[in-house]
UniProtKB/TrEMBL annotation:
Gene3D superfamilies named in the record: MFS general substrate transporter like domains
The name this protein goes by in its record: Major facilitator superfamily (MFS) profile domain-containing protein
Composition bias, Basic and acidic residues: 10-20
Region (Disordered): 1-31
Native species: Saxophila tyrrhenica
GO molecular function: spermidine transmembrane transporter activity; spermine transmembrane transporter activity
Length: 362
């Protein structure tokens, strides 16, 4: 075991409670701009890939119907099961990233996505396809649930707006490019190639992720304490049993409790569920409507989603403009009296005030 570290005054360090001042090189917020950019690119790339995996399957639904002799409703289930996996996965992914670190979750999740995507591509019946797609979505879910948390590890609040806006835009762009790419590979090859395309993306994402550094503060301080041979703070030093108990009693139950007891949380959940449900309904319906009503080919049907990509980019530009022109000023104003103060949360509602009316109009 390593000896406790000697401090500048000659005393021996006996605990690790926080960073060693604002210039601590172990603090991710002191990383170089290049390193921060690289670590922003990782969750952004994975955020594109994970929802891409849901919609890339949809152009192959007709071929799945024919090959497995099932109805269209049954052939849609692998698409639905992937989305269910994306929905349930964050319940485990979020707490796991705060126990084992962001890197550990990404490194473990991506091979899982690859394995079940491979299984989906080789499926010989609809049941195995549905099951494999569910677990592929489950392992893909960290790409959506821990990305913004990772960015907040190394960027202060006033600098997160742009990177987080780009991250969320990639979440929207992934499902858009899924039917476009999936349509042409299904047309030229077959539906199984929609799964092989996901694998190509996973290889790239894993190569990008493998060299990353850990960014979560609690995990880094635990490692520092272990390296110095001293005990970490009690809040960072929890056993597996304690973590499991906290997971069951707090992580799982508290969001459900808040959804039913906090009107703002409940209404916001319903609104988001409706928005994402409608968005994914487009991917299921467009292919049938444009192929059977308007006579589009499988490949050209995917091009009908370009409008959503244009809308997502326009939304990104609006957010970036508001971030630089409004939020930056409000944040600076809030810090005038107190350097540690942050902009009032309700100031961020300006985006909702713009977007909410535009959604039904569009």
């Amino acid at each position: 075991m390593a000896n406790p570290e000697a401090l500048e005054d000659g005393a021996q360090r006996t605990e690790v409670k926080d960073w060693d001042g604002p210039d601590d090189q172990g603090n991710p917020r002191n990383w170089s701009p290049q390193k921060k950019f690289y670590h922003c690119a990782i969750p952004t790339a994975i955020a594109f890939l994970c929802p891409f995996g849901s919609s890339v399957y949809t152009p192959g639904i007709s071929q799945v119907e024919t090959e497995f002799h099932v109805t269209r409703e049954i052939a849609l289930l692998p698409f639905v099961s992937y989305l269910l996996g994306l929905s349930f996965g964050p319940i485990v992914a979020g707490p796991s990233s705060e126990t084992f670190g962001r890197k550990a979750v990404y490194i473990c999740a991506l091979p899982g996505v690859a394995a079940f995507t491979l299984g989906a591509g080789f499926s010989q019946n609809i049941t195995s396809l549905i099951v494999c797609r569910f677990f592929a979505g489950l392992f893909a879910s960290p790409g959506l649930s821990i990305g913004t948390a990772m960015v907040s590890d190394f960027l202060p609040l006033e600098k997160r707006g742009g990177p987080v806006a780009v991250f969320i835009t990639m979440v929207q762009m992934g499902p858009v490019f899924g039917p476009i790419i999936g349509g042409y590979v299904t047309e030229s090859k077959n539906w199984r190639w929609t799964q092989w395309v996901i694998l190509f993306g996973i290889v790239f994402a894993f190569a990008l992720t493998a060299p990353m550094s850990e960014s979560y503060k609690a995990v880094l301080l635990k490692r520092r304490a272990k390296k110095l041979g001293i005990e970490p703070p009690p809040e960072f030093n929890t056993s597996a049993l304690q973590s499991l108990k906290y997971f069951v009693t707090k992580t799982v139950s508290r969001p459900i409790q808040m959804m039913f007891t906090e009107p703002i949380v409940g209404l916001f959940d319903i609104y988001n569920a409706f928005n994402f449900g409608l968005l994914n309904a487009f991917f299921a319906a467009f292919s049938w409507v444009f192929e059977n009503v308007y006579g589009f080919g499988i490949g050209s049907t995917g091009l009908t989603y370009i409008g959503q990509a244009v809308g997502s980019i326009m939304g990104l530009l609006i957010v970036l403009y508001i971030y630089n022109s409004y939020w930056a000023k409000e944040s600076k104003k809030a810090k005038e009296g107190n350097s540690s103060a942050n902009m009032a949360p309700e100031k961020r509602l300006i985006i909702a005030k713009i977007g909410a009316p535009m959604f039904p109009v569009s």
